[in-house]
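Q: Can I see a sequence and its folded structure?
A: Here is a first one.
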Amino acid sequence: MKLLTLAVVASLALVSSVAIAAPVGGQKSGHDTIQSGYVQTYTLALRRGEPTVIVVAGNDASDLDCYLYDDGGNEVDRDDDNTDVCRLEVKPLWTGIFTLKIVNVGERTAQYAFRAL
């Protein structure tokens, strides 16, 4: 778990120096395990006009892709490269519920941590 935590901290260091707003209710974070071929979904209430960064960092076991959708089902950002680290950014046009989908497209089960700030 220490390696996973360090990966999240390292990824968060990539956040620009621009002021970032937390989701409604404050920062959201957690960790979980996802099997190969599975999708896990999280909902976040985001504020209109406030930039939010979402970072997902895996344990180097698989390839994780991340997608962010607004409350109308429209994709607003994605990170679908060949790594297990995702970084999504959004500056919502309205306050609403957004959906984060984490997809394990690799061949092995993976552990990951995520943070929305």
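Q: Show me another, different protein.
A: A second, unrelated one:
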Amino acid sequence: MLRAGQRLEQAAHYPCRAARETFVAMTSTVSTNPIQALRSRPMSPMQVIAIAICIAINMVDGFDIMIASFTATGISREWGLKPTDLGLLFSAARSA
């Protein structure tokens, strides 16, 4: 465990105040239980942004399949495809 002076000296290398405070907080408390460490302090703004980006990526990930299911009847009518051909088309699009 680092002494208080060492923590502050090493924290000076971090560019923003939030990073310095996080470094000092993480090095000043030793916890062997990660759940306890996560529950002991609130999420940082950077963690909230990272989770929001992950949620947005998951929402967009299935969008192409959802659109394909809504447009299947129009595509089959316009291109003159049978249902088996549509299945082949959508499975090929999914693997790309």
